[in-house]
Structure of 4-hydroxy-3-methylbut-2-en-1-yl diphosphate synthase (flavodoxin):
Amino acid sequence: MTELHASTAMPAELDQPIALGVAQVRKTRQGVVAWGDHRVTVGGGAPVRVQAMTNTDTADAIGTAIQVKELALAGSELVRITVNNDEAAKAVPYIREQLDRMGVTVPLIGDFHYNGHRLLSDHPACAEALSKYRINPGNVGRGDKGDRQFGQMVELAAKYDKAIRIGVNWGSLDQDLLARLMDQNAQRARPWEARQVMYEALITSALESAAKAEEIGLNGNNIMLSCKVSNVQDLVAVYQALAQRCDHALHLGLTEAGMGTKGAVASAAALSVLLQQGIGDTIRVSLTPQPGESRTQEVLIALEILQALGLRAFVPSVTACPGCGRTTSTTFQELAKQIDDYLRGSMPQWRERYPGVENLKVAVMGCIVNGPGESKHADLGISLPGTGEAPSAPVYIDGEKAMTLRGDAIAHDFQQIVENYIEKRFGVEA
């Protein structure tokens, strides 16, 4: 029997390094969403922006302002609020006023459906207090009436120099447009599948509406688009096609993603595929809060998605092993959580005091198998003893073993090491 051996020789054509894992870049126009001197750029090489939406009754100005502040402090760079009736529209200027008093400059986006043209016209203070209008082409009216009402909103955006998002959603798609495309599809020699016609309707609605807005006189850079669906594969397909057919900045999100783990995983799956391809300039995770859960959870997941992809850094990262039979003690789990909570809880103060601290990498490992190696790859790392190992924990700083901790105060001692390292590396003197 012939014995086979794997060749160690590499063909010349393969003697090239494996490409680095980095996200692609899509060139887009750059829009600006501003309030006063605070400007948030979207697209055109700007970082992928995180936004969220309140779930308070907008007519409750104080309650809404408080939630907007919470979302902004959690990391949301833009916050959308529902403007659905006269009471909500009247409250918007007061919400803005309350935020300004609290020193919260996050721009507000007004979410309009059905009657946005009237609310913006009847309440000019609302139109001015908002920094961006979300317009759904499927909900502005049908036929000539829809064109007039859409045009009215765009004219007001141009008058007040506001950005807009043309936000198409397959749950509220323009039925006249869909019927037209269905009729066209029936005439094809080989008709498309119904879902493919739906894809085309979403994209056509967004692109035709954007073209109309520019014809009316709105700065094309400040027109952002979205085509939201609730299925991961559908979202990927639609946005890949949309990105090829326009250079507008794109708002990315899986609509009605769901609750808890399902919503978080589905959003991460869909957004990560597209962001890796350079598609998406601002994102929102449309997570249904579980009972008693803070609205800020959707912001935290969005931040984690961007940080996991290496697109942005918001908080120091903590690498920790999952644990196995070698780590029957929960010591490393407790220390990992303690350090992670400590780093996240300290960030509001650290952002100003320690510029760059969000890039810090910490490893908290549970045994000798991967502990020393992972610790050497981090800025700071500790390898705790696994089951049956000597009761000692080597600490690595900038890839070099610096000391070994022992005793009952390992957690406290390591946290002090972290504090000292941050002060030394990121403090004012550094």
